[in-house]
Amino acid sequence: PTPPKPPLYYPAPPLSIPSGSPTPTMGFAQLVIGPAGSGKSTYCSGLYQHCETVGRRIHMVNLDPAAEHFSYPVSTDIRELISLDDVMEELGMGPNGGLIYCMEHLEDNLDDWLDEQLENYLDDDYLVFDCPGQIELFTHVPVLHNFVEYLKRKNFTVCAVYLLDSQFVSDVTKYISGCMASLSAMIQLELPHINILSKMDLVSNKKDVEDYLNPEAQVLLSQLNRQMAPRFHKLNKALAELVDDYNMVNFIPLDLRKESSIQYVLSNIDNCIQYGEDADVKVRDFIPEEDD
């Protein structure tokens, strides 16, 4: 018999606390990642506005040393430590090398600068980290992985929120590319992981995107083989089976015009990191609106 597929997300394991030990201070965090232009800052802005509307407090943290403008209040900003403009001017680096330098400088100052910043937050505070869009940071450069390990040592429960532009998922080859990038981030960061298709409000034909939310392997394989030369058929088969067999890469569509869509995404993330368990939050109790 075919084994059951794993769930869409992987909840964080419960903390093991020895008997008689005091309960550790713990916070919650989203690490918002994804390629440049995928809508990370727009997502953070929409999330902040939604939480403000429903009376929920969250804190926005900017980890992008190249950021210039924000449509949400930033409680902690990496540019107070280092900025990309200063690095490019003083060290003569380009934008890509300069950004890696900035993030490595942050890594070197986790126990000093970031420790001091985190002291400003209370127990159980909810932080949202808006990260740079340079794909190397969450695929193979260890900076964000080490940042995540630091947060875990501080007893934060963290969820990676990976955004992919829904307009990017317009055909099967782009979908497979997006899946592989997301899977690479999942392996690198070793975190509970939620994948989001952003900018759904800009998609003219939502049926084209919905076909890729829970695709069948045989359908993917057939489409790949039609678009690619015969010498790639074995590779296509392996990729389609990887996506299907493990079911580790699924996407939740997000339309920021709809409060119900934002709430559904947030409920999935909260459930993933076990936020609000005392309030008995259950994702399955929420049914998102269907498009007309």
If you had to describe this structure to a student in words, what would you say it looks like?
Small GTPase required for proper nuclear import of RNA polymerase II and III (RNAPII and RNAPIII). May act at an RNAP assembly step prior to nuclear import. Keywords: GTP-binding, Hydrolase, Nucleotide-binding. This is GPN-loop GTPase 3. By secondary structure, the chain is an alpha/beta fold. The chain has a domain at 27-204 and 249-274: Rossmann fold (3-Layer(aba) Sandwich). It is built from 10 helices and 7 strands. It has a 7-stranded parallel β-sheet with strand order 3-2-4-1-5-6-7, sandwiched between helices. Helix 8 packs antiparallel against helix 9 (233-246). The protein starts with 26 loop residues before the first strand and ends in a 20-residue tail after the last helix.
Short note summarizing the structure:
By secondary structure, this protein is an alpha/beta fold. The chain has a domain of 204 residues: Rossmann fold (3-Layer(aba) Sandwich), CATH 3.40.50. It has ten helices and seven strands.
Helix run count = 10
Q: Tell me the total number of β-strands.
A: 7
Structural class: alpha/beta
Give the strand order of the largest sheet, numbering strands 1, 2, ... along the chain: 3-2-4-1-5-6-7
Oligomer designation: single chain
Radius of gyration: 20 Å
Q: Provide the β-strand percentage band.
A: 5-15%
CATH architecture label of the domain at 27-204 and 249-274: 3-Layer(aba) Sandwich
The description of the largest β-sheet is: 7 strands, parallel
Low-confidence stretches: 4-25, 280-284
Q: What is the first-to-last residue Cα distance? A: 38 Å
- What is the CATH superfamily label of the domain at 27-204 and 249-274? P-loop containing nucleotide triphosphate hydrolases
The CATH class designation of the domain at 27-204 and 249-274 is Alpha Beta
Shape: globular
What is the average of the pLDDT values?
84
Helical percent range?
A: 40-55%
GO molecular function: GTP binding; GTPase activity
Pfam family, one: ATP_bind_1
Protein name: GPN-loop GTPase 3
Subunit structure: Binds to RNA polymerase II (RNAPII).
